[in-house]
């Protein structure tokens, strides 16, 4: 073999070796790319799985029953049962609404969730008024307060008669009386400081009124409370009417009682008139009469007519 031939073969071998090295060097980046691609695919699948799980929870909550179960589990151990004491119910509702707000409980689920925490009697009442449907939370709250007869006057009474229990802290007591005051002012539709001022004055006026006058004013109040000026007007009219209807004393009867003293009972007569006892003319005799006596004449079945007639001493003989 010539020198040129051997040189050519050598060059070809070197070229083949360089080509194989290039191929091997190119294979490394391709494998890295495949690994990176697989990593990206796995990440995408993980994100898709998490998204599907989140959508599944939302879909489960959107099915009604699933939503109620979900929120009921979250609130278990947080919501307390409705208290037996009527005075504590307003504070309990306040706590319920705070928890609903903190846990972002949807409005259409609140009524179903709260049913399990009502007393047995109240659950029966709500079921009776629901006509087969579950009432909303505001309607349940309104029905419970109505059944307990927690009127504006009752809120006011509970507020002023509230006392701290030994088992509660001062902060708990503060929360309770704040709730009672808020319920009272809300039931009276207090929106401004002027409204609150009129309400306090009106309450004070009714507190110092005589019982009959206060009852008359209370009968006049319906859904809206009366302003102080209207209360004063009604009280004045009522007491003026009472003064006009009082029967006047008969001056004749009073003066005659002072002149003659106590009179003896007069026996009834079949003729319809009652006469004085007979007198024997002796002024010291117990039956002696020389001035006047009362004469009672029957008018109708039960009514009698009172008159005065002089009795001559000769009639006693």
TrEMBL record:
Segments of this protein annotated with the region Disordered: 1-28, 238-288
Biased composition (Polar residues): 1-16, 251-282
The organism's place on the tree of life at top rank: Eukaryota
InterPro entries named in the record: SCAN_sf (IPR038269)
This protein's name: Retrovirus-related Pol polyprotein
Organism: Ornithodoros erraticus
Lineage: Eukaryota, Metazoa, Ecdysozoa, Arthropoda, Chelicerata
């Amino acid at each position: 073999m010539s020198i040129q031939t051997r040189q050519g073969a050598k060059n070809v071998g070197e070229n083949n070796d360089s080509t194989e090295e290039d191929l091997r060097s190119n294979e490394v980046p391709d494998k890295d790319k495949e690994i990176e691609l697989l990593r990206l695919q796995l990440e995408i699948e993980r994100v898709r799985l998490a998204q599907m799980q989140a959508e599944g929870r939302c879909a489960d909550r959107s099915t009604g029953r699933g939503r109620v179960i979900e929120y009921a589990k979250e609130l278990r151990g947080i919501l307390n049962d409705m208290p037996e004491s009527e005075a504590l119910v307003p504070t309990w509702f306040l706590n319920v609404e705070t928890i609903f707000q903190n846990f972002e409980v949807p409005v259409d689920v609140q009524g179903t969730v709260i049913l399990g925490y009502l007393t047995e009697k109240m659950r029966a009442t709500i079921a009776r008024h629901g006509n087969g449907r579950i009432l909303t939370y505001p309607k349940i709250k309104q029905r419970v307060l109505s059944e307990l007869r927690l009127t504006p006057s009752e809120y006011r009474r509970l507020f002023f008669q509230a006392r701290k229990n030994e088992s509660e802290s001062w902060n708990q007591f503060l929360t309770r009386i704040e709730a009672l005051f808020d319920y009272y002012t809300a039931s009276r539709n207090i929106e401004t400081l002027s409204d609150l001022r009129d309400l306090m004055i009106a309450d004070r006026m009714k507190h110092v009124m005589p019982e009959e006058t206060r009852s008359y004013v209370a009968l006049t109040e319906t859904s809206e409370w009366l302003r102080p000026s209207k209360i004063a007007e009604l009280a004045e009219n009522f007491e003026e009417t009472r003064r006009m209807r009082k029967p006047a004393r008969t001056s004749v009867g009073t003066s005659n009682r002072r002149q003659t003293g106590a009179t003896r009972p007069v026996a009834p007569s079949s003729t319809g008139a009652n006469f004085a006892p007979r007198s024997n003319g002796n002024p010291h005799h117990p039956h002696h009469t020389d001035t006047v006596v009362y004469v009672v004449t029957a008018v109708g079945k039960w009514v009698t007519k009172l008159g005065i007639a002089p009795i001559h001493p000769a009639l006693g003989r």
